[in-house]
Amino acid sequence: MPTVDRLTPLLARFRVRTRLFHTGPLCGVTTFPAAIGRGFLHVLREGEMEMEVRRADGSSTRIAVTEPSLLFFPRPTEHVFVGAPTEESDFACATVEVDGGALHPLVRALPSVVVLPLDEVVTLRPALDLLFAEVDDVRCGHPMLIDRLFEVVLIQMLRWMLDNPARLALPPGLLSGLSDERLARALSAVHEAPGEPWTLHTLARTAAMSRSAFAARFKDVVGTTPADYLTEWRLTIAQEQLRAGTPVGTIAAELGYASASAFSRAFSQRLGCSPRAWLALAA
Predict the structure, then answer these.
(1) Do the Cβ atoms of 248 and 263 come closer than 8 Å?
(2) Rounded-to-integer distance, Cα 144 and Cα 131, Å
(3) In whole angstroms, what is the distance from residue 207 CA to residue 203 CA?
(4) Which of 168, 196, 219 finishes a domain?
(5) What are the tens digits of pLDDT across the range 193-246?
(6) Same domain (yes/no): 152, 223
(7) Rounded to whole angstroms, how far apart are CA atoms 15 and 26?
(8) Does 98 map to a domain?
(9) How far apart are CA 182 and CA 6, in angstroms?
(10) Which of 47, 118, 197, 273 could tie 68 with a disulfide, CB 3.0–4.6 Å?
């Protein structure tokens, strides 16, 4: 498996926050509406149920959850629990918010719902033991500790997904790229240092591949060209920095653009408006 850290550069720049909002049984049919910028992470530690996932186009899918599982919705997705967990079940729900929301490349790369049996991820057991022990024993700092433990569970799950892409049948995208030993080196380098003067040559050298082989494999596995991915990553960072009030000139220098005007041109070409106009629309 890749020896580089594939998650820290992503999660350090775009923080993930989880917040517990329910533990214990649910009554009958429970609907979780889609809300912009919010995902869900449910832990069914005991019991079983049916779940209906509703899409924006009006279609839906029924999924039977017959064993203890993690249910992860990385993007806003309406879903309904039918025959929800009973008094005999260990059950907990948290919201998930990622800086950048649906624009985050990792969020975009994930399927709309991940159902992961707990037995698949042995490393989850200690974190889940701590999580449910804290759920059952309300003490000082209880909410903060549970929220942090949910973050641990989420990162453990993402680790497993990166190490087991074949079991998820993932389409081309970032997750597939980070699961590839050579491409992961180049992607992680870009994530860690987006302002470096990356070229096809330097990225291929980082991946220990020839330029032609690297370019072809990157397109097949990630679904875009290295240059386009680099631009998307830089502009995703830029959008978060604009929201935070960072001046355009500072953003341009950090992301490797020769000037503020060069950055504004690249921003406008990709997003259809200037950084300041985009910020006004976003607000």
Answers:
(1) yes
(2) 11
(3) 6
(4) 168
(5) 999 999 999 999 999 999 999 999 999 999 999 999 999 999 989 998 998 899
(6) no
(7) 30
(8) yes
(9) 12
(10) 118
